[in-house]
């Protein structure tokens, strides 16, 4: 009897051990070597030397599974300082690996290396990585593909093939020289010369037909397109001629699937779509096109269109790679560049799955509420100087709650961790606008912004509600805001000025979309909620690079919790020094 009574316990122990071994076998350490180096690239009939990773443009795809540990050794072989950001990775307690220069780390200097060390915890889907210093992400970027754990299927039909589509921008000029000149003059930098798909501008630009991305499809097959907007300054519409796309994920979070002819994707955002090929060979080719969404007036933007080509395998042809240029080539009907109605209609359809397996853990109560204005402004010209800003006595600026963040000469996270914040940053970022006005009405006479290095402090595990309000100063505009270190739920949005009495009654607290980057509507507002469960210093900024450069950025300081697993880990020994 005694022996038999032990058998169930022994079996349970054996089963538990086997399960642990299975879990450990699923979660592995993946190592990558990223060498930052120059490479000569020819686009638009002109060659130039660009900064790349491993000589690739776009850079290599980083592949991992949910639960994997990732080690990326970055070695800087170029004359520029460098950091890399793993956009959308939660970085739980590993803020040292987040990447924004002078926020979580000092830059990797020429000839130096740094190992980014993080674990992909509770995430699966499409994210991306990019340089996070100056405008170097113009060419330094690539996809992150996070596969589900072994044996866990997608919550949608399994695709025949998966591939990333990265939208970028191309300048004939050196982007570092371009932004340096703009900062000297106080004016707006020159717009890009082309958009790209996977680094290729495509046939709608002069002499670029040979540089065209092509997707070869088989009739009846379903393809998972991992869309990434890596453009510096443009939100993009995307459509495939005569085909419907099914949205299944945004920012590495599954959503309730819905079909669209055209989608909107902002800089920093990712969107996974299913494209089902036509059941029979269609005897035609189809453009996959992207063009900008913009409401800025006055102002200029790159109003061009990039196209790749969807071509079908001809079952009657022996060739796999030939492109039949004699077939009809269909173009999608893209929206007008300022079609805010389409943008609103699309974003309003995004909903979390909110299932037992993929719940929507929306904070139902709120500990801290904040109201931020986001938008443009001005700064006075230096004494005895003439500027090229809105007037010849002002230069362009941008701010959150009228504070234009000035990055320090050392890293904010290290200053916090070592207790040496005096003279580096203050902890008094305003929780409300310092001066209230009709935010989407007539612009105030004084458009100057204040400057400073101020953080907003949160206790660990506080539930946060943040309303971000666009302003009409220098014109209304959509601002894609990215929060590092967290996902958040988009519980509400609207146009005009936010109404704190009536608007919250319409918040969606059941199945709102969960993201890391959200567009603040032009002339409107967006409300998000998140749980401050990740200690560290976390950057939040507009992902239009020109606005970040002008100061539309801030940082949250989330304090340690009381338990050992609620505290920021110590910095790695190879953390770069300023």
From TrEMBL:
Subcellular location: Secreted, Extracellular space, Apoplast
Catalytic activity reported: 4 hydroquinone + O2 = 4 benzosemiquinone + 2 H2O
GO biological process, alphabetically ordered: lignin catabolic process
Superkingdom: Eukaryota
Domain Plastocyanin-like: 35-149, 162-314, 438-560
EC number(s) stated in the UniProt entry for this protein: 1.10.3.2
Enzyme class: oxidoreductase
Similarity field: Belongs to the multicopper oxidase family.
Function according to Swiss-Prot or TrEMBL: Lignin degradation and detoxification of lignin-derived products.
Descriptive protein name: Laccase
Species, as recorded: Triticum aestivum (Wheat)
Lineage: Eukaryota, Viridiplantae, Streptophyta, Embryophyta, Tracheophyta
Gene label: LOC123049113
């Amino acid at each position: 009897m005694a022996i038999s009574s032990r058998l169930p316990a022994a079996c349970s122990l054996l089963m538990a051990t086997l399960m642990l071994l299975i879990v450990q076998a699923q979660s592995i350490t993946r190592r990558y070597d990223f060498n930052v180096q120059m490479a000569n690239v020819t686009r638009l009939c002109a060659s130039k030397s660009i900064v790349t990773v491993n000589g690739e443009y776009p850079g290599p795809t980083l592949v991992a599974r949910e639960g994997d540990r990732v080690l990326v050794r970055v070695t800087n072989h170029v004359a520029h300082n460098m950091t890399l950001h793993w956009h959308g990775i939660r970085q739980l307690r590993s803020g040292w690996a987040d990447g924004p220069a002078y926020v979580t780390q000092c830059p990797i200097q020429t000839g130096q290396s740094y190992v980014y060390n993080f674990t992909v915890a509770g995430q699966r889907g499409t994210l991306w990585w990019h340089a996070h210093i100056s405008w170097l992400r113009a060419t330094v970027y690539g996809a992150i593909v996070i596969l589900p754990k072994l044996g866990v299927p997608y919550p949608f039909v399994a695709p025949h093939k998966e591939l990333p589509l990265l939208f970028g921008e191309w300048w004939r000029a050196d982007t570092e020289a371009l932004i340096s000149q703009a900062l000297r003059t106080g004016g707006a930098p020159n717009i890009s010369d082309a958009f790209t798909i996977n680094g290729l501008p495509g046939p709608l630009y002069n002499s670029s037909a040979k540089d065209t991305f092509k997707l070869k499809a088989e009739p009846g097959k379903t393809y998972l397109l991992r869309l990434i907007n890596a453009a510096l300054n443009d939100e993009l519409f995307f459509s495939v001629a005569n085909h419907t796309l099914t949205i299944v994920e945004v920012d590495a979070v599954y959503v309730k699937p819905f079909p669209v002819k055209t989608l909107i994707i902002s800089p920093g955002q990712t969107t996974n779509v299913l494209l089902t090929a036509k059941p029979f060979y269609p005897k035609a080719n189809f453009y996959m096109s992207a063009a900008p969404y913009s409401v800025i007036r006055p102002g200029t933007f790159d109003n061009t269109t990039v196209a790749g080509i969807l071509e079908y395998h001809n079952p009657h042809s022996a060739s796999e790679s030939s492109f039949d240029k004699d077939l009809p080539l269909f173009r999608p009907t893209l929206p007008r560049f300022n079609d805010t109605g389409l943008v609103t209609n699309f974003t309003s359809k995004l909903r979390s799955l909110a299932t037992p397996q993929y719940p929507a853990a929306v904070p139902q109560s709120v500990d801290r509420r904040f109201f931020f204005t986001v938008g443009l402004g001005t700064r006075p010209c230096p004494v005895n100087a003439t500027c090229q800003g809105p007037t010849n006595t002002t230069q362009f600026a941008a701010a959150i709650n009228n504070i234009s963040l000035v990055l320090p000469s050392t890293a904010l996270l290290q200053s916090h961790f070592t207790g040496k914040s005096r003279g580096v940053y203050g902890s008094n970022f305003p929780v409300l606008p310092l001066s209230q006005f009709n935010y989407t009405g007539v612009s105030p006479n004084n458009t100057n912004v204040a400057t400073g290095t101020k953080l907003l402090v949160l206790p660990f595990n506080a539930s946060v509600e943040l309303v971000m309000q666009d302003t009409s100063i220098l014109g209304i505009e959509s601002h894609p805001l990215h929060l590092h270190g967290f996902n958040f739920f988009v519980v509400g949005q609207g146009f005009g000025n936010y109404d704190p009495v009536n608007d919250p009654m319409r918040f969606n607290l059941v199945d709102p979309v969960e993201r890391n980057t959200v567009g603040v509507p032009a002339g409107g507002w967006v409300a998000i909620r998140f749980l401050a469960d990740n200690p560290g210093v976390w950057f939040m900024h507009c992902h239009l690079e020109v606005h970040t450069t002008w100061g539309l950025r801030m940082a949250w300081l989330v304090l340690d919790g009381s338990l050992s697993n609620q505290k920021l880990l110590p910095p790695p020994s190879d953390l770069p020094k300023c």
